[in-house]
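Practice problem: predict the structure.
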Amino acid sequence: MEHSHHAHQHSEHQEHDKHAGHSVAMFKDKFWLSFILTIPVLAYSEMIQHWLNFTPPAFPGSQYVPFVLSTIIFFYGGTVFIKGAWNELKAKLPGMMTLISLAIITAYVYSVATQFWLSGEGFFWELATLVTIMLLGHWLEMASVAKAEGALDAISKLLPDKAEKLVNGKPKQVLVSELKVGDLVLIRPGSRIPVDGVITDGKSSIDEAAITGESKPVSKSVNDEVVAGTGNQDGSLTVKVTKIGQDTALAGIMRLVAEAQSSKSNVQVLADKAAFALTIIAIATAIITFIYWVFAKDTAFALERSVTVLIIACPHALGLAIPLVVSISTAISARSGLLVRKRLALEAARNLDWVLFDKTGTLTKGEHGVTDIWATKGYTEEDILHLTASLEQNSEHIVGKGIVGEATKRHVHLDKVEDFAALPGLGVKGKLHGKDNFVAASYRYIKENKLKVPDDIERYSKQAAKDGKTEVYLIKDNQLVVGAIALADVIREQSKQAIAALKAEGVKTAMVTGDSQDVAAYVAKQLGLDQYFAEVRPEDKATKVKELQRTGSKVAFVGDGINDAPALTTADIGMAIGAGTDVAIKSADIILVKSDPRDVIRVIHLSKATYRKMVQNLAWATGYNVVAIPLAAGVLYGSGIVLSPAVGAVLMSLSTVIVAINAQLLRRVHYHPGHSH
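Answer:
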């Protein structure tokens, strides 16, 4: 566990290289302190006083206020960027951090020189505002990224930490970690199975949805294998331990998740590319400017010009362009029930080619609903429902609950059952109306007891079985089949709309399920999917994602179970349906809180709008530099136009404000894929 957790940590660092070892709180603290210290720096700067026409109270040494406070800001707030720049240069990828560092180091060194040795204006207030705004940008950015937690903790929570070991035939509570291969463990109804093993005694239905994604509980008896993390339903079992710890299926899935997470590519944001280009341009321009003015005028003027170029090139606006859009789109998405854990995923959603859905619990509700009721002569549909639901009213079983739910929905009253007994793995039996004995059971019971299903029911039930429905037969007096009820995993209403909306966007849809070909074909036809994969084992879901990716397609995977975790991490974008398991949520990039498949469309719409805003902001922020850098370099000096560092700084702030306003406009876009709100 420990090992995989570190592997996960490591992958996070690769992804946000520039933020390795940084925390949201650190940027926040650094920002607030720098912000507070910037105010007196501004107040005691001659340029600001001149503009605002005011004089702060003077005191001995007050001329050193900007120098002293800017020094604190530089070393306390600025060193983060310098460390970041060092890492970028080591990785031979100079970007935003390098550009910021270049500007603040130049500004600081030059300003200290003018304070004590050179003649000329210092840049202390520009330096202070620069560091403060950059800290704000990075704080916003990191806060919106929100720390990724380990998907692995959630998987380990599925495992009970205690088990009942049979010692001389008596159950004794022990820690799961103390169990050895070959031990016997008692598993009571309704509890989770702590180890991989083989049943040596007992019969039960086991809900394996968390591991296999199979929607129906699987009946198991002696010599059948059971898997750690699955839920025992209605019978008591004795299990012989065959695998423990690292060897269990669950541990295998955990390893897959860890690997998939660490193999996520290191995607550098658009802004970094722009910053890289700017860095090169800024340094080149500064050098050329310096050389030119040294010969054309003098060293002091040359120095002032080249320093101005470097400071102006530092992208206030560029530094805020992306983080602001990110934090606003994160806020919007959270309000619409989309939690974005990896912002690169939201950015990539606009280019999706395929959306691959898990079936159980995603396109379907993951709960059984009645689809058909068949009755033989002498009985009505309502009679069959009434009798079967009466028998099942105390059932712990998904199927039983589905039948009782249908009776409640149709306001069918239920009778009291006498002599009730569960037939583990098969069904239930009991006496109704004080005289008739009834059994409600699966087809297996009919086979075991060699009963005959009436032709009128058999005709329908064969088709139902083909469509992957679960049948429950109602048997009177242990011999006569009087009716049957078919149940299926209910397809969500919203699934049809979601698939239709994705098609309208030109995105292809596919489904992957552990269920049989027949079930998959039935659901795929109902929904109009482009493709489906049936009988897919949990560990192979990620392989299906890779198959689609091999054709060069961008693939999103939408799922809810633990078994979906590897697929969610392998996909270009993993989306977890919110009502799903914690694990799926922690391995997903985006969580659809409302468990509504239509939200996939919302993600795509939001992604497109966010991207548009980012590109506009980048264009604006770089456009400003295209104009300002040549002016700072003194291109128009001959015409009497030269950009002073102060005016440059004002223009810089102005472009920052414009970028901020443009980012806010993102809030006005609507993301309603035919949603009725």
